[in-house]
Design a protein that fits this description.
Blueprint: H1 8-15, H2 17-21, E1 23-28, E2 31-33, E3 45-49, H3 66-99, H4 103-111, H5 119-127, H6 133-140, E4 156-160, E5 163-166, E6 169-170, E7 182-187, E8 191-196, H7 200-208, E9 213-220, E10 224-233, H8 238-248, E11 253-261, E12 264-273, H9 276-287, E13 292-297
Parallel strand pairs: 6-8
Antiparallel strand pairs: 1-2, 1-3, 4-5, 4-9, 7-8, 7-9, 10-12, 10-13, 11-12
Helix pairs in contact: 3-5
Length: 300
């Protein structure tokens, strides 16, 4: 028995932890519903899973059962730890290559400067940027050598007039990606906020405070979240087919919301992409899925 206000995600975790961890969507009484849908007595629930789907922090805002909350937090904590470990390994390998040492030699050299019991501890310190690669390299190199190593963070550098490497925030309303035509809005609290050229909020600022808007030239590395909307004739297996296409195009789903109108499903996804070209490729592939009629960028 689930408590009042429970969701399909609570139900999935009640069945099995693996089903909860890979819950991609749900059908209640034969209709697709969002994951935060509140279940009612007598509902017939079908959980849709996908091996590439994993929990997100947003789930914690709507699940009701202590088991679901505990399992989601446990998964996210482990996922975060693995991300830090992988980042630490990447940084350590760059330093090792820079100094032309074997893996065992670089660990021994670091032990002379930094105390750690297990290799994992060092990797976490590096992955969390508690010590930067450049500072660690300076510790390891002879003082007379002026060494420099640049961090390769998953970030974008913005070039604005004669200023470079300006920090920024990406607007949640349009989520621009590299390759988009981008404008920066100068704000008092957040600094420079980047908007995609067709963003309705950007157009409002251009009408009311055009002096706050600057054209931006940027370049990016890594992946960036953006939103898409898919309109399709509802059918069994639609959500699963679309998720599979997104996975096959080397993208991850961070959020999915579905509502139905008449015989149509309106599906909103937050996914990650490398750039505008990658986003276009994903949309073109999705349009080839049976019963899909439209896939486009979503502005919120």
């Amino acid at each position: 028995v689930l408590p009042k206000g429970s969701t399909p995600v609570d139900f999935a975790y009640k069945i099995h932890t693996d089903i909860g961890n890979h819950c991609m969507g749900a059908k209640v009484n034969g209709r697709i519903v969002p994951l935060n849908y509140k279940l009612q007595n007598g509902d017939m629930v079908e959980i849709i899973t996908h091996p590439n789907k994993t929990p997100s922090y947003e789930w914690l805002s709507f699940v009701k059962t202590s088991k679901a909350k505990s399992k989601i937090k446990q998964f996210l904590k482990q996922q975060e730890k693995e991300r830090y470990l992988n980042e630490g390994k990447r940084i350590l390998e760059r330093i090792r290559a820079k100094l032309n040492l074997s893996y065992e030699e670089i660990l021994e050299k670091i032990r002379e400067k930094i105390r750690f019991d297990k290799e994992e501890e060092l990797l976490l310190v590096l992955g969390k940027r508690k010590i930067s690669a450049s500072n660690l390299l300076k510790l390891l190199l002879p003082k007379e050598k002026d060494a420099e190593i640049h961090e390769e963070k998953n970030e974008v550098f913005v070039y604005l007039d004669d200023l470079s490497n300006i920090k920024y925030e990406i607007a949640e309303c349009c989520k621009p990606v590299p390759g988009d035509e981008v404008f920066g809005v100068i704000t008092r609290v957040k600094g420079l906020v980047l908007h995609e050229a067709h963003c309705p909020n950007l157009k409002n600022v251009l009408r009311t405070n055009p002096e706050k808007v600057k054209r931006i030239k940027w370049q990016g590395r890594g992946k960036f979240k953006t939103d898409i909307r898919i309109i399709a004739k509802d059918r069994i297996g639609l959500l699963s087919d679309i998720a599979q296409v997104i996975s096959q195009t080397n993208s991850n789903i961070y959020l999915s919301q579905t509502k139905t109108k008449d015989t149509y499903a309106i599906m909103d996804f937050t996914i990650d992409v490398k750039d505008k070209k990658h986003l276009k490729e994903i949309c073109e592939k999705i349009k080839q899925v049976e019963s899909v009629e439209e896939c486009k960028r979503l502005y919120r």
